[in-house]
Amino acid sequence: MLARSARFLLAWSLLNALVNVLYPGNETKFSYLFPSLDVCVLLGVYAAYAAWGRRVPRALGGAGLAFLVLARLVRLGDGVGHRYLRRSLNLSIDLRLVPDAVRLLWTLLGGARIVLLGLLSSLALVGLLRLGRRALSEAETYFQVARQRALFGAIVGALIVAAPFGPKAYGDEHFRGMFVPSLLPRLQRELDFALHISGYRQARLSELRAAAQRLSQVRDSLDRLDHIPVLLFIVEAYGTTVFDPKLETPFLREALQRFESKLAEGGYFIASSVLESPVYGGSSWLAQATLATGVQTRDEFEFGLLKALEPPAIADFFRRAGYRTLLVQPGTSAARIEPDFLHFDARYLGNDFGYRGPAFAWAPMPDQFVIDLIHRREVLAARAPLFVEYALVSSHAAWAELPSVVADWQRLGDGAIFATLEKKRFFTDLLAGPRLRPAYEHAIVYDFEVLERYLDQRLQQAALVFVVGDHQPIPDATGYAASRGVPLHVISRRRDLIEAWLGRGYAPTLRPRLETAPLPLSTFLPTLLDVCSTARMPGLQTTR
Known about the structure:
With 544 residues, the chain is of the alpha/beta class. The protein has 2 domains: 2-195, no CATH class; 215-357 and 385-413 and 427-531, Alkaline Phosphatase, subunit A (3-Layer(aba) Sandwich). It has 18 helices and 10 strands. It has helices spanning 2-20, 37-51, 58-84, 91-94, 98-109, 111-142, 146-161, 184-195, 197-214, 250-265, 284-293, 300-309, 314-320, 367-379, 436-458, 475-478, 495-502, 524-531; strands spanning 230-235, 269-276, 324-329, 346-349, 386-392, 401-402, 424-425, 464-469, 485-492, 519-520. The strands form 2 sheets. It has an 8-stranded mixed β-sheet with strand order 4-3-5-1-8-9-2-10. Strands 6-7 form a two-stranded antiparallel sheet. The chain is elongated, with a radius of gyration of 28 Å.
């Protein structure tokens, strides 16, 4: 009996681990060894059939095994979501992000390793099915003996009695006493969303319309700018973790101090604050849509509604004030081009730059090349006031390769020079953990060195410059910081423009104040309009 009981306990533990493991999410210590409520119920069904003297029907056994595998896949997906995005996945919304995830994996691992990973994953799935079937078969055999069924019932009963003394947390959920919670409520939430998607759509449309309507109360003439150029640099994965005293290294601190000192020598003034991004670790386009429209856009569902609603965006306000508006997105390929619901006059996408150099990990071209080309082609040649929004990409994960900064801007040309220059390479495997931090810091420092040189050496005319992050980097690079904060820096040689932002509580340095709760990223647009305007201009509809 002892041998049979040992085999059964091993099978039970295997089934628990199959369902409970949260990896690559954060594990509560040894939580995967605790009994799963779902597994206990399934084993209870097997015990009941044995008590009736019947075998479990093959269809029912197959359904139970399929549920266990489904539980494993959902927990794996949520583990990925919590590790890299700090949230559970919504299958109805997030499945469309699979192509982007594959692209990132391809960048991180390369084609050969992706194929190998796919093969190993397929073998692992087959192995899990066989192990699960073997474990359930062992349980069915074990329950043929009444004393052994009674022992199983006694163990479950003891666990129920011990419930008040059980662990307090399991991942982001709670234990149900001594049991790891069932997957059913998680699946029920998915089903509820799918069944009531029309109601969710109407509720969120109302929220989006209300947010867009609030812009109608804001001054928006932009007359205080006196038609100087306005440049908005969105730095990929630039989060407040950069300024976290617990994580900040001398290398990073000195680079940022150098940026601030150099700009001060060049006559620039700075105002800085922190805004709360709607996303963490990825989904940059949601943050960019939030910046452009003043509507907090948290997921793909809201993004689709925002595109359909087409509220007035930042380009609309600048165009009405007499500006030519440009959207610069070097990371967007021709295959991914969509209609521009943000209404820019012109867009520069990946294939529009004529770049002839190498790619750098995720980035198809260096940010220095992008900024230089736009400066030569648009800023210097501008016949009308110019508003440019840049979505910089050199600081995008995986940070495996970084370009060198070219001191002489005249040498950049079509980018072919980057093929002759040394690449900075870093180890950025998916499971690199804290080792990602140095690579991430070098990527941020690269962008700030490029911006420093551009503002100091190339941008001679008066301008208003914004440097803002879109989201925190993935948690492995942040030490799992809880904040969704991103820095916003307002930079100009016009003291009066900077003083207006300082009057809103911004810090007069590059280092923002981290002790106060940040406002949402959606407040950027209305604040910009209000600070830079003296009056409200009529005629711009708030929604379609």
